[in-house]
Specification:
- This protein has helices at 2-23, 30-39, 42-53, 58-89.
- The chain is mostly helical.
- Helix 2 packs antiparallel against helix 4 and helix 3 (42-53) packs antiparallel against helix 4 (58-89).
Length: 97
């Protein structure tokens, strides 16, 4: 019972900290920040790979494979969005000389 309250307390603190931190970031940087944080979901890939390594049944292997596939897609998507957003901040003027 106490573990549940501790987990809820940690979740509430994380939510408040996240809100305070995000509210202080300029609006123009929200998308790159979110793209970068998408890559944190790469941890899902590691967890899914560990689960897949310990899978014994076909159902467990299928779920592990889907976890690896979706986690990798999310990580790659985060990189693609970050790259696309960074292109928007580059100057359109070409260097002469």
């Amino acid at each position: 019972m106490m573990d549940g309250f501790v987990a809820l307390y940690i979740f509430m603190l994380a939510a408040i900290c996240g809100h305070v931190i995000i509210s202080r970031v300029p609006v123009i940087l929200h998308t790159p920040l979110m793209s970068g944080s998408n890559f944190v979901h790469g941890i899902v890939v590691v967890g899914a790979m560990i689960s897949l390594a310990h899978a014994d049944t076909t159902l467990e292997r299928t779920i592990g494979f889907l976890g690896v596939l979706l986690g990798a897609g999310n990580a790659v998507g985060g990189y693609v969005v970050t790259e696309r957003m960074l292109e928007m901040f580059k100057s359109s003027k070409k260097k002469e000389g």
